[in-house]
Amino acid sequence: MKAMGFVGFADVKMKAVIVPDLFFTDLLPQIDDLAELKLTLHCFWLLNEQSSEFRYLRGQDLRQDDILLRSLALDNELHTPLAVLEKALERAVTRNTLLRLEIESTAPDQTIQTEDWYFMNTAKGRQTIALVRQGKLEELQVAIPAEARLRIERPNIFVLYEQNVGLMTPLIAEQLRDLEKTYPPAWIEEAFDIAVGGNKRSLRYIQAILKRWETEGKNDTQDANVGRDSRTATRRRDLPDEFADVILR
Questions:
Q1: Measured between alpha carbons, how far is 39 from 68 in angstroms, rounded to an integer?
Q2: For the range 77-85, what are the long-range contacts, defined as Cβ-Cβ under 8 Å and sequence gap of 24 or more?
């Protein structure tokens, strides 16, 4: 059945939605997924509707947003709108358009609930996240429930990559997701640390370290306060064979 075209905007007073001009000049040329584009614009609209100084979006609310889900239902006949939304959220977070935090709160029955919250990557959004991470939730009571607390979290693997290796691409993002599913977070962080310490900032190098630990075992008994020489020796020991000629400083 042929879809009905848009009949036009009604002749009534309409509310304007503020979208930064950098969205059109810097971000839009990068977005290569229709669902991600729809989600990003929808988030701008939802955040415009909020009146508090500190604004954020709850993942639970996005998953129950009928307007958003209807728009995403048009994007992929093989996946449910919720599945499309999850993928779009992941892409927006990977692209650094949205900043995600995991928050814990206590339900009325005293069980611990975990929520995902999303902040637009603006100066105000980054400021809000900094306050949350510093434990200053009392300063955000207008927007954030007082009983909520930041879930203890390790650095996101995408953040680790961008901070230590380079720019993200969709292919690299898929490879990082595979690492995240295969290896413990502590292993991944240490592999990045070894790569940075050896000035071998490549995903292939990090993958090789993790693969070696997986096949040969990993020594986790080293004391956290060992000296510089011991740390260097450990890095040398954990080097993949193909990188054995690298001199660690």
A1: 7
A2: 84/35, 85/35, 85/39
Instruction: Please give the torsion angle defined by the CA atoms of residues 83, 88, 94 and 98, in that order, rounded to the nearest 10 degrees.
Output: -120
Tell me how many degrees the CA angle 162-63-152 measures, rounded to the nearest 5.
45
Q: What is the mean pLDDT of residues 29-55?
A: 92
3-state DSSP call for residue 187? helix
pLDDT tens digits along 179-207: 988 998 889 989 998 998 888 889 999 99
Question: What type of residue sits at position 64?
Answer: Q
Backbone region of residue 96 per phi and psi (left: phi > 0; alpha: psi in -120 to 50; beta: other values): left
- Assign domain 21-150 one CATH number from 2.60.40, 1.20.120, 3.40.50, 1.10.10: 1.10.10
157-185 pLDDT per residue, tens: 887 888 788 877 878 888 998 898 899 88
Specify the fold of 157-243. Answer: Arc Repressor Mutant, subunit A (1.10.10)
Given a contact cutoff of 8 angstroms between Cβ atoms, the answer to whether 149 and 103 are in contact is: yes
Cβ neighbourhood burial of 52 (10 Å; 0-12, 13-18, 19+): exposed
pTM of the predicted protein model: 0.60
Give me the residue spans of the domains in the chain: 21-150, 157-243
Mean pLDDT of 135-157: 58
Q: State pLDDT tens for residues 54-67.
A: 788 999 999 999 99
